[in-house]
Amino acid sequence: MTDEGTTAPTASTPQDDQLTYDVVVVGAGAVGENVADRAGRTGLSVVVVEQELVGGECSYWACMPSKAMLRPGAVLAAARAVPGAAEAVSGTIDTTALLARRSAFTSHWDDASQVSWLDGAGIALVRGAARLTGPRVLEVTSDDGSVVTLTARHAVVLATGSEPVIPDIDGLVRSAPWTSREATSVEDVPASLAVLGGGVVGVEMATAFADLGTHVTLIVRGDRVLNGFEPFVSEAVVGSLREIGVDVRLETQVVEAHREDGGVHLRLSTGSVLVAEQVLVATGRRPATADLGLETVGLTAGSTITVDDSLAVKGVADGWLFAAGDVTGRVATTHQGKYQARVVGDVIAARFGTADAPEPADGPQVPGSERPAAAAESAAGAWSRYRATADHAAVPQVVFSRPEAASVGLTESAAHDAGLTVRTVEYALGSVAGAAVSADGYEGTAQIVIDTERGVIVGATFVGPEIAEMLHAATIAVVGEVPIERLWHAVPAYPTMSEVWLRLLETAGL
Q1: Which residues, 6+ apart, have CB-to-CB distance to 496 below 8 Å?
Q2: 403 upstream amide cis, omega within 30 of 0
Q3: Which of 107, 122, 137 is the last residue of a domain?
């Protein structure tokens, strides 16, 4: 539905210098693709703008390549923990094969298949850097300097993700450190690597490169890694990192860096000097909003974009500007960004979609719309598909460290901070038959946080080998606010690790 006489540009059609669509999505990563897909389902014309590769950070430099790099080490560790399989395992990881499989998952950094998907879905693509010039109007500058002006009839969605932050350490920038991009696209594995930061990227990449035979030093400013998890997660992960040869240095900072003789020299707060062939900075990310022209619509360039639960940007009149994913500063995971994308796409479709979109006879109103929403909210109005309420109470996260760490909802500390009256119940996963069968000497922990006033689980944490797939059951319990008495009737199969749910409930006194 472009203006009469114009043609929606695709990868193979020429671009006019002025184009109009119903919806303009800035950023063609996983979040932007999902926004475009959901928003276009009721007849709206949609264009996405992407400066780099269609598919974004997750597909090429984050989720997919990093997990492909981590999987061989996890498989080897699992096999070595089972007599009968352990005897069949010899040698070490084949670096060439691992990196080849990694590159296959990134399509060798070629986005042709992603572009083809856009074409098949009827979503137009304009390549270049987009910048707002006023309400509903953007200029897109391509690599060759040509400029296309895009106008949105109804909505603009900003989904440009985030970018790594290099801390202000003397000489660090000049030493040409890696960020997660260089780490996950590595071709020549360094003999030694210093990793700065104990978050998800730091822990996962320390694990991956240790598996590849690199001597890894993990430098963490605080007293534990994975600070957003329960403290027992850090204890387990740090212990395992050290077992696989990672030199973990807690409560340590880099105060100066310089590169010489093929290595980077790091002066540490402890007074010692560490020399590594390469340095990976994994100390945090910031919203990629510096060059979006936010100031032209009354927002601050480079800032987090504050949104309400419908993902509409606060402080912008007329409800035309939305944002989703890392730029909102709410939750920096791909799956939660895609969840937000589905919400905002549905909001836009319900508010601005064509008359032949499905419309139930009744139901709550989408803000700014005279049309009923396509699904009724719960009695409390908390779980409408048009509200990203899971951002506040039910965020799942998995770290593919060894052991894996997974959590959803609130930690015990966060629950207390929220004013809830809670008790925690913990159980050793190694005491569950399913875990004992899966690996000799299995070690892991499961914990739930129970809101004692309502009798529901508000948080769950797991740490142990191969526990990632256990998380969704906990997520359903938290999102569904399932009374723990009712969970007693959810019988886990035997012998599986999920039997820990029975043990947790027994420990809780049920």
Answers
A1: 434
A2: yes
A3: 107
Q: Is 284 annotated as a binding residue?
A: yes
Whether residues 122 and 68 share a domain: the answer is no
Q: pLDDT tens digits for 258-311?
A: 999 889 999 999 999 999 999 999 999 999 999 999 999 999 999 999 999 999
Q: Is 199 annotated as ligand-binding?
A: yes
Q: Are residues 444 and 330 in the same domain?
A: no
Average pLDDT over residues 93-114: 97
Q: Are residues 336 and 237 in the same domain?
A: no
Q: Are 224 and 149 contained in the same domain?
A: no
Query: What CATH number has the domain bearing residue 463?
Result: 3.30.390.30
In this structure, the answer to whether residues 156 and 293 fall within a common structural domain is yes
Q: Is 272 annotated as a binding residue?
A: no
What contacts 37, CB < 8 A, 6 or more positions away?
Answer: 121, 123, 345
Query: Final residue of a domain: which of 359, 386, 414?
Result: 359
B/e letters for 362-380, b = 16+ CB within 10 Å, e = fewer, are eeeebeeeeebbbeeeeee
Cis omega before residue 164 (within 30°)? no
Asked if residue 329 belongs to a domain, the reply is: yes
200 marked as binding residue: yes
Q: What is the pLDDT of residue 381?
A: 52
Residue 161 counted as an annotated binding residue: yes
- Does 372 fall in a domain? no
pLDDT tens-digit profile of 104-151? 999 999 999 999 999 999 999 999 999 999 999 999 999 999 999 999
Domain count, the chain: 4
Quote the tokens at residue 479: 């999102």
Domain span at residue 485 reads 403-507
For 383-410, what is each residue's pLDDT tens digit? 788 999 999 989 999 999 999 999 999 9
Q: Which long-range contacts (CB under 8 A, 24 or more apart) does 380-385 make?
A: 383/479, 385/342, 385/343, 385/346
455 annotated as a binding-site residue: no
Question: Is 338 annotated as ligand-binding?
Answer: no
The reply to whether 198 sits in an annotated binding site is yes
Q: What is the pTM of this model?
A: 0.90
| 258 and 310 together in one domain | no
Annotated binding residue 326: yes
Clarify whether residues 44 and 78 are in a common domain. no
Q: Which amino acid type is present at position 79? A: A
Q: Is residue 396 part of a domain?
A: no
- State whether 241 and 150 are in the same domain: no
Q: Is 203 annotated as a binding residue?
A: yes
Q: Tell whether residue 160 is among the known ligand binding residues.
A: yes
pLDDT in tens, 429-460: 999 999 999 999 999 999 999 999 999 999 99
pLDDT at 353 over 80: yes
